[in-house]
Structures are given as structure tokens and as C-alpha cells.
User: Fold this.
Amino acid sequence: MASSHPASHRTHVPLSSESGGNPFDNDAPPVPIHIVTDASQLPREFLNPSPKRQLVVGFDCEGIDLCRHGTLCIMQALYFQFGIKLHNVMDTQIAYSLIEEQEGRTRLPDDYISFVGLLADPRYCGISYPEKEEVRLLLRQDPNFWTYRPLSELMVRAAADDVRFLLYIYHMMMGKLNQRSLWYLAVHGALYCQCFCVSDNNYADWPSVPPIPDNLITEGNAPEEEVLSILDVPQGKMGRVIGRKGASILSIKESCNAEIFLGGAKGPPDKVFIMGPVKQVRKAEAMLRGRMMD
Assistant:
């Protein structure tokens, strides 16, 4: 974060792998932490980024409750509060799954790695993050932990810790992804930004999804177009979609090579969001409609 006001908090930011030396060298000079309360305090490069110069920004969100459908992730919070549509997003969770697939590991439904787990993985950082557990304990004791102002020393440190490693992880992950995975990463990043941000015009005013690059269109090996589909669930039918103890929706997820998200916790409670290759998305739609008719 940055502002025009002097910073009283400082922290160390790991160097990128291209910089050489020990990335976690605490002998390096610390950088300031600025607390921003108005857009005018942000750097000019952030407000008006140049297409000629790469700008990588690490984002994290602690779950903002707008009394809409529960807590929202960063892209939803920006969209519903300020009308900001994120694009060119590199999601570390998506990148992690793609790297796992590249290295021959089978992807499981709802495969997920926590930020603490990502930091501990020696391929990316290989460090422990015990302070995160302290904050999680405080959140369980008081769900309003992040709403209090002014921010305490612990809150500032925890917020900075959640993003100061992201640029290092970004460089480590981008160096591992092949061209095919980089395209999937760009497409899924774009679709995730739309997911749950329900639009009345079928996302016509959103940035377009990256097309399949020419170098990937080879005979018999071109990736299939990826899409986002939103399926309306009639009132009273969501229970059939989910099934007893989630058995129905889990069975559908295991049968389709597509990502399926229910509304409720992070979106409209009467919708199902399906993301993936066109044929797999259509297959999931058919199976979900069948469950509604049972």
C-alpha cells in the first residue's frame, strides 16, 4: 500500500528470483508500509498504468461483508463497491493447480492450497508463517477483527505479510508455467473475475477473455475454448443439486472436467457457476438440470 503520508511501519519484501542473493535477507533495508484511505494517496502508476511498462500488484482481501450474499473476494468487493472490473489477473491458486497438472499430479475436485501452505512449499518460498495462525485464532474469537479502527500493530503487520510475499511467489510460479498453462492462467483469471459478479448484459462491458494463441493451435492438440456459464436454480431445487451431505454436487464435479461453484456464501443463492471447456460445461449443465428434475 502507498500514500502521500509518512509511513511509520516498515517491513522486508523478498527479492525476486531474478535479483540474485538471498530473497529473505533481513539485512536488506526495509520498505515502508503506507495505509491508504483515499484513492488520491495511491501511486500514479497504479491509478494510470502504462501498457508499455509492466506493473505487478499483489492483492489480498479479508472478506468484506456488504450484506449482499456473505463475504466477498477482492474482485467482487471492487466490482460491487466501486464498479471496478479487474483484468489480467494472475491467481496464485489457479497457477498452483496448473503447475501441479504440469508435473503429472492428478487434480482433485475442490483442490485447494492455503496461503500458509503455499509459503511453506519449498518450490515457492519454503518458510513458515506462524503469525497467520494467531490472526486466524483472533478471527474465530471475534469475526469483526478486521473492522476495528485505527488498525493495530498486529493488523498492519498481518495485512502486509499477506501481500509482501506475493511478488516473489509470482516470479517463481511464472517461471514454471509453460505456454499452454500461461494461456489457461490468463483465461481462468478473467473468468474468475466475472464469476459471482452477475451482470445483466452477459458481461458485454467486461474485458474479453484471451483467445487461444496461434502457437497453441496445432493439429489435434489445440486447447478447447473455455467459458463461464451461470445456471439458474428454481426455488426449492438447490437441495437436490447439492444432495445429502453434498453427495450429488460432488458426483457431478467428479464426472466433469469443469469447475462448479454454488452461490450462497459468495454469490446469489439461486445460481450455479460453471467454468471450463465448452463441452464439459455443457455436460455439467445437463447433469445439474437433471438433478433439478429428479
Remarks:
- The chain has two domains: 9-204, 224-294.
